[in-house]
Amino acid sequence: MENSLSKILSLQGVNYDWKKEEYPDLKFNDGQQIGFIAQDVEKVFPEVVSTDNNGYKGISYDKLVPALTEAIKEQQKQIEELKAEVKELKAGR
Fold it and tell me: Residue 76: which domain range?
């Protein structure tokens, strides 16, 4: 997986409330929810978004775990490089 960090950074988490009154048949949960807008995620990770027969989109959040793991690895590599650079700069005083 390439560019996982930049892809993850492009996602925007949101708070939202289900439109329970408009869609009573869907039996949405009460209260405020957190997540992503499926259409936005689809642009970055199309493989984690599905569309049902009625056109409703859903996100398989579990499928984001590999991308998150790779993003953490990319960050850790950056941290290690920065630590080495700081060590070098301190040694050159």
Answer: 4-91
